[in-house]
Amino acid sequence: MRQIVADADQVDKSLALLLRAEQVARERIRHFWHSRLNGLSQHATLGAVRETDLKVEEHAVDPAIGPQAPVARWILPALAAKMAHFGQGAQLVALPHEKGVALNLVVKEPTPVDVPW
């Protein structure tokens, strides 16, 4: 889907905007993946997810990989895509970005748009 990027102190507003855009219904989002978020970015993102009342399983990939090397950026979307492909619902992904935090949704099939033609 289309990602949204925000400064760490604005991640709550960006997440709310991403969810209001309804690229996917909130109840379809079942997992939250994050990696390499540090300090304010991590705390603000985790707090924003908790405030949305999303019922998601959290997956912090960094502790699973270990301290030897940072997790590659493509690992999270790939893991989320595999989960979505095998029927685990939509996946929310948060990664660091040069401007703060990049939030994105990964789904197998997007919600059809209800547009009267």
Overview of the structural elements:
The protein is an alpha/beta fold and 117 residues long. The chain has a single domain, classed as Thiolase/Chalcone synthase (Peroxisomal Thiolase, Chain A, domain 1), CATH 3.40.47. Helix content is 33%, strand content 24%. The protein contains four helices and five strands; from the N terminus they run βαβαβααββ. It has helices at residues 11-20, 39-51, 61-65, 75-85, and strands spanning 4-6, 29-34, 57-60, 90-97, 100-106.
User: Which whole number gives the mean pLDDT?
Assistant: 89
Category by helix and strand content: alpha/beta
Distance from first to last alpha carbon: 23 Å
Classify the fold: give the CATH topology: Peroxisomal Thiolase, Chain A, domain 1
The H-level CATH homologous superfamily, spelled out, is Thiolase/Chalcone synthase
User: What proportion strand?
Assistant: 15-25%
**Count, helices:** 4
Low-confidence stretches: none
Annotation, overall tally of beta strands: 5
Characteristic key phrases:
117 residues; alpha/beta; Peroxisomal Thiolase, Chain A, domain 1; 24% strand; globular
Per-chain topology:
Layout: E1 4-6, H1 11-20, E2 29-34, H2 39-51, E3 57-60, H3 61-65, H4 75-85, E4 90-97, E5 100-106
Parallel strand pairs: 2-3, 2-4
Antiparallel strand pairs: 1-5, 4-5
Helix pairs in contact: 1-2
Short account of what is shown:
33% of the residues lie in helices and 24% in strands.
